[in-house]
Amino acid sequence: MNYFILIIIGVIFLIATLFLFIFFYPRKKEHFLKKKKYIDKKANNDIKNFDDIFQFPKKDLQFNQHFFSGKKVVITGDLKYFQNRNDLALLLWNKGAIVNKVYNSSIDFLIVGKSNIDSLKLKSAFYLNIKVITEEELLSYFPDFKPYS
Q: What's the rounded Cα separation, in Å, for the pair 47 and 137?
């Protein structure tokens, strides 16, 4: 008799699990798709953000002797000569730079757009001995580049 009760409880549990899975799965998938669409839309409109791929070294670089090759770079401030940070990050990444989103002591260069002199990043760059490059100075390293504005 005890086995019969256990089998009935098991069948009820299995039916309840299948019902919950079938009932809630499509909603969860729809929610995920809506969330992904929102994130993609936000990322495309956010000019201060850039793709995560630029945080890793480019694999197919051959004999790259550019100034920024192998250097870690952070971009800050509003950009005047580039449409968005993604364009600047792509330019640097194609020359071998690693463009980080996080500012810390392992950074080699801080690229500054139009920003305040009292910026906390600029002050900490002075204390951490990180070289600060303005957008105008940056363009001197890329003579073939045609500015956005």
A: 21
Alpha carbon distances (Å) from 113 to 39, 47, 116: 26, 13, 9
Contact 108, 114 (CB under 8 A): no
Model confidence band, residue 88 (pLDDT cutoffs 50, 70, 90): confident
Q: Are strands 72-76 and 98-100 parallel, antiparallel or unpaired?
A: parallel
Higher pLDDT, 35 or 9: 9
- What is the C-alpha to C-alpha distance for residues 64 and 95, in angstroms, rounded to an integer? 7
SS3 112: strand
C-alpha–C-alpha distance, residues 96 and 90, integer Å: 10
- Spatial distance between the Cα atoms of 134 and 142, rounded to a whole number of angstroms: 13
The pTM of this model reads 0.60
Q: How far apart are CA 98 and CA 71, in angstroms?
A: 6
